[in-house]
Amino acid sequence: MLAEADRLAQLFSAELLLVHVGHHGSEEEQKIAQLARAVKLNSDYKIVWRQGDPVKEILRACREEQIDLLVAGALKKEKMVRHYVGSVARAIMRKADCSVYMVNNPSLNPQPIQQIVVNAEDSAHVERAIAVACRMAELEKSSWVHIVRELKLLGLALTASEQSTEQEYSEYKQSLMRDEINSVEEILSSIPHDKIKINIKMLSGKSGFELCRFVERKQGDLLIVGAPQRRLSFFDRIFPHDLEYVFGELPCNLLVVNQQKQNG
User: Fold this and answer.
1) Nearest to 55 by CA among 29, 80, 86, 81
2) Region of residue 101 (phi > 0: left; psi between -120 and 50: alpha; otherwise: beta)
3) pLDDT one-digit tens code per residue, 16-66
4) Cα separation, 8 vs 142, whole angstroms
5) Per-residue model confidence (pLDDT) at position 248
6) Is residue 225 within 8 Å of residue 245, measured between CB atoms?
7) Can you list the domains of the chain with their CATH numbers?
């Protein structure tokens, strides 16, 4: 995780801050120093020492230190008990005011991100998420940015129920697809992306499930989503919200973009 965080800090010319929740003594200081030497950290770093509940203290540290991006580790798929109770990383992700970068398979030798997938659903964060994806692709020299948008099937269902002809149904579906693609292209018109390969993809079905399958098919390195507009509850984990499904499945590294932090 230190190696992954160090690479991101170098990529964005950012300050690296380490948060340790637990006992603070000479032994702990030596362990962190040993870890920093072991991974050959290139970034200058600062350590914030906290005691208490890990989730509360990490979130408090992010607010007080005005953190732009919180990097955390997460299991690719949680066991049943951990899924409902919630790991520290996912609890942080659901409550953080800043953007959160979750690494599901950290490496001592992290590589540049080649395949970026963006969830471009209608939300307060969609423009920010696409802009972040394009900026990361530029810095990483990524191969592709795939912008995924859900094709609204409700309108199609209503059209079918009105006994439309097959041709009318097909034309209406094509019209919906063009409208969705135009919406994405309108967002892109205000975002620098001239040197980036963009693929706009329409998905239908259960959006969280289909989004994860698309990431797997494209061998995605990073999935970018906008932060939920409301706090996800215990009941969302029993009856999965679309993003809650993504959080539980975690097909690759995940960046949750929060609009509240405008810098970085």
Assistant:
1) 86
2) beta
3) 999 999 999 999 999 999 999 999 999 999 999 999 998 999 999 999 999
4) 15
5) 73
6) no
7) 104-257 (3.40.50.620)
| E-strand stretches of 92-208 | 99-103, 115-119, 144-150, 198-203
Q: Are 168 and 159 in contact, with CB atoms under 8 Å apart?
A: yes
Q: Which residues contact 89 (CB under 8 A, 6 or more apart)?
A: 72, 73, 74, 102
- The closest alpha carbon to 242, from 197, 205, 200, belongs to 205
C-alpha dihedral sign at 75, 81, 86, 88: negative
Q: Is the dihedral of CA 204, 210, 213, 214 positive or negative?
A: positive
- Whole-angstrom CA distances from 120 to 22, 95, 185 are 39, 21, 11
Distance CA 101, CA 109 (A): 17
β strands within the chain, DSSP E: 16-21, 45-50, 69-73, 99-103, 115-119, 144-150, 198-203, 222-226, 253-257
Residue 122 confidence (pLDDT)? 67
- A 10 A CB-CB count for 23 gives 9
> Edge-to-edge strands of the sheet including 144-150?
69-73, 99-103, 253-257, 222-226, 115-119, 144-150, 198-203
Give the ranges where 189-256 is alpha helix by DSSP (H): 207-217, 234-238, 242-249
Q: How far is CA 89 from CA 56, 122, 177, 204, 226, in A?
A: 12, 26, 36, 30, 17
Judged by average pLDDT, the poorest of 4-13, 144-153, 196-205 is: 144-153
Write the single-letter amino acid at 130: I
